[in-house]
Amino acid sequence: MKPFIPQLVYIEPQALDYPLGRELKEKFEKMGIEIKETTSHNQIRNLPGDTDLQKYRVAKSTLVVGVRRTLKFDTSKPSAEYAIPLATGCMGHCHYCYLQTTLGSKPYIRTYVNLDEIFEQAEKYMDERKPEITRFEAACTSDIVGIDHLTHSLKKAIEFFGRTELGRLRFVTKFHHVDHLLDAKHNGHTRFRFSVNSRYVIKNFEPGTSSFDQRLEAAKKVANAGYPLGFIVAPIYMHDDWQEGYFELFERLAESLEGESIPDLSFELIQHRFTKPAKKVIEKHYPKTKLELDESKRKYKWGKYGIGKYVYPTEEANDLETTISSYIQQFFPHATIAYFT
Ligand code: SF4
Description:
35% of the residues lie in helices and 20% in strands. It is an alpha/beta fold. The chain has a single domain (8-340), classed as Alpha-Beta Horseshoe (pyruvate-formate lyase- activating enzyme), CATH 3.80.30.30. The strands form 3 sheets. Strands 4-5-8-9-10-11-12-15 form an 8-stranded mixed sheet, with helices on one face. Strands 2-1-3-7-6 form a 5-stranded mixed sheet, covered by helices on one side. Strand 13 and strand 14 (309-311) form a beta hairpin. The longest helix has 18 residues, at 314-331. The chain binds iron/sulfur cluster (SF4). Iron/sulfur cluster (SF4) binds next to loops. The site of iron/sulfur cluster has 9 residues, from loops.
């Protein structure tokens, strides 16, 4: 898996008022990438491509360099108090991705250059909660690691939270391009998590992301750089022989991490879910997907903004939770299971 290089770059004029905006413009010019100006990302309509599917593919490799105007952070339960907006969108093609719901018709990637304003806002949230710790999740709307080799905004965020007393950063990734983050002064304040799954899920539903082995190699590097490390098993999916599939996952994970010293390993468990709007988008963008999206086999759970989710029925969800937790206890008896949702 090669590091992401955008096919097309749009720059909002105001982005050039910020050093990172200017730096990125120069970088992409030197790389010979086509750059267009746009007054706002909402103006991006005529992406190349004859069909919606082609346009979707181009959008997924289009980067918009812009300014984050809304500085009110979303909440991000259960993993953190707030979502810190460094970027939105992702170049990966995971069929089940939650961005199918949140980004819908605008799947291009946006990176924000007004980092100091974003960090100032984070300070305000930390002040409000002091003396409590405040956790910020940086991967709610993108896979931030996947683009950070270009922007280094995540690296700046890691160092910013490293300097704070009460702020903590966390994010999850399916990409292995972590080398530039290894020397960041994180001060133990950033939890680096990798998304892992059974072979079946990775093979069938996660095109355009790093392989399991590449993610594990990166996880070891990150642990050696002293970052608190975690794994998110998501989405936990009931495919044929799922018990064997997930058992093998933890077996391989344990083998690969044998001999590594990981003092504070954490696991987060998220069962597969989908919304009705996401189902429509998934079926349009990945028409041949094997992803099971049958509402009648699921339980409806009320969600934010009136968009409910379809999760596994209670009994199946309990089975998933108990089975996966038992594998974790077997292979990683000292790890913490933060939650199952
Ligand atoms: Fe979505 Fe994450 Fe896959 Fe990117 S890597 S497409 S953010 S699930």
